[in-house]
Amino acid sequence: MIRIGLLVIFLVTHGKGQDSCEILPKQPTVKMGSDLVVLFHAPPNGDCRKQVTYSSNRVYWRFNNKAIEKSYYRYNSTFAAVSIHNITLKVGTIECLIDDIVLGGTIIRAYSPPQNIHCVTLNERVKMRATCYWDHDRSSENTKYTVQLKQEGKPILKCISSERDCQFTESISMAGMNITVCAENPRGVVLCEEAIYNDFYLTLKPSHLLNVHVEPQSNGSLKVSWLPGTDTVKSWKHICEIQSIQESSNAKTVKKIEWIPTKGMSSYTIDGVQPCSKYTVSLRCALSEKYPWSDWSQPATALSELNVNTVLFQLLRTKDVPQGNGMRQMHLMWKGVPPSCGSFEYRLFVLRNYTNSTSDMNAKFERFTSTQNHTIITVDREAHTLLVAAYHNNVMKGKSSLQVPTSGEDFDLPPVNNLTAVANSDQIDVSWVAPALPVSSYMIVWNSTRHKHQWQQTQETCISLTAQPSHLYKISVSPLYGYVPGLEKSVLMYSKEGEPASVWNVHIDDIRDNRARIRWQLVSPIQCCAFVVNYTVFYKAESGPELNMTVGRNQNKVILDQLQPGTRYDVYIEATSFSSSSKSDLISFQTKPLGELASTLIILGGVVSVPIFVLIGIILTRKFLSKVIPDPRYSSVSMWSSQQCRKIQHLPQTASCMNTYSEAILPCRIETIERDISSAEWTSTEALHNCEEDQISTFSHIASISSLEKEDTVLVSSQSKWVIPTDCVQNPSLEPSHDFHLQLDCTVTPYLNQTPVVSPVETPEMVLGGSQKLCISQETEALLKSDNNGADGTTYIMVG
Fold first, then answer.
1. CA-CA distance, 445 to 501, in Å (whole number)?
2. Which of 424, 549, 624, 796 has its CA 20 to 30 A from that of 716?
3. Which of 116-130, 165-179, 780-794 has the lowest mean pLDDT?
4. How many CA atoms lie within 13 A of 456 on its CB side?
5. Are 478 and 415 in contact (CB under 8 A)?
6. Would you state the pLDDT for residue 298?
7. Domains of the chain (ranges, CATH numbers)
């Protein structure tokens, strides 16, 4: 029908001879959610036929650049039409096309009429005044609303407003009424909506209650009283709501009651309120659930009283900790009177031997305010009873006690297993696994550096704790085996991490031409406001890219290598948590020039080497000058073969020493002969009984050696000339009574490499007649003058 109507309108308004091609209606305005038919007219002489080969069945449509299904198309020889259903967009563009050529288009605007119309009527004694309200998604601030109120037998009342409510100034009767609200936008479009009230009381709003008062009761309840409103219908049953709000927690409670108004005061008692808490109470009423509610009454406040019979006293302790000398400490916690009841105090009694009678409570005690709920106590190894009592004006209102066994009976019972904590928005979810032994309950203690000590007792293996963001909480869980606590386990956790603390105390040392070491102070896990997971050192040269190196949370130093010599670097350290990061202050250093380190080492090496070389020279000089002639007192005589002696090269002699005694350094060593030589004499036959005749070249006799006790021992007999071949002497077996062994070899040893020996051709007396001095070298003369104390046993050899 809409489509046919639009076609008729078009035919009436457009006569013959029209040459323009166009879309109708132009820029239509429709009701939100309604349907619309859009037409495209192409007359036989229309300009659009000159652009394309026109045919109505070739036209297709788009709405907001999206193609419309062909099932919504209609057409004849000169018209093409499309239907658009359920328009919900405020603004939309529709176009018609042939071969992607746009032939025409228009803008569609949709408006919604006023909705949710509801009216209330106030009984103002003199007259009944109505006020209507509605919702409207208006597209312009200039929308004008017109409200009409119709009652049977009454003239129509009008109310004009630019807002979404309107109050009639005329009085109305207590009868049914029809309400029509029309909204007119700046484009002149008017959309209307209607509401019908057949029951007048559906609009009647009671006036608010008067003189609301709240009085605390001794049993901890609150008594609320009030008077009816000015227009409250007496003797009619009303539905009322009593709202109470606890000030400290902002917890709201609403109770519904039935009330029949009377001339006097009405009252109601609120139970289940928290003791010593401030409450704000207000009321409202209606004739029924479907009728309008009155406004909330003026609020009234009151402080609830403490009912000691309803207060649950709790007293718990942690596992004791030895302190030495038989003393032990434990953490004691209690709950009883709410902290808001400031006129109360707690008294702690420490009684021996499980005493729990008030007659013993005149002993010493410790006082605590109503806001204190824990302390650390110290007791000896004996059994005790810990009792906490609440007092008001020196009158005990309640108490709780627990027993502490002797230190030998307070066993280390197992803790919980797998304690974990997970941050969850503004709370921390804590869970654990129960130990193997049966557990009666668990004690959870949590606190932060900014909040008071809190604790809770539960029989579950999980709990959710309310926590402030960026505050570090220490959460401890202890199992309770009856009244005996088990070992405690703790965990640190944030409900929401903030920015970690910045790294400080950054040092740069061991700076070289191509490397440097960076050290810093680790961020403590208890520093606000996040846990550090790693550190990243960023460094950058004056001209170059920024580089970085990342290490774990427990490492506090890195070595930056492959640096450029003689270059300035800027360094800062970033501490990273799971959710944020922080940066240290910027610090700079400059690497040393290339080769500076090598030059420094060479200079230091030269300075150190000078005293070392001097010391080595002194040691070598002393070692050379300290060589001495062996002491003859610890010497023996051995035989040496002439064949071996011919291999010795004598040292050159000076002219003054020619044809006289010669001096030589013999490099061969003859092992010492161990025997008793105090009076022994032996011949060549006894010593060489195993030698072949051709191996012995010459043998005269062996010189006798005087006793070791004589100071002036003669080294060699003046008439001796002998040679013993070392290769023929093989440990000769001598007479057992002489008790000695003969072992000869010719090995070179460091001890005898430079043994000075005098080779006597003749005695000095025979050559010089006793008047000429023996000619020896200066080296030998110096050695002869040195002290021979402590000389070891040495073999002297006579060489002919």
1. 26
2. 624
3. 780-794
4. 13
5. yes
6. 93
7. 2-111 (2.60.40.10), 115-202 (2.60.40.10), 210-303 (2.60.40.10), 314-404 (2.60.40.10), 417-494 (2.60.40.10), 504-590 (2.60.40.10), 628-800 (no CATH)
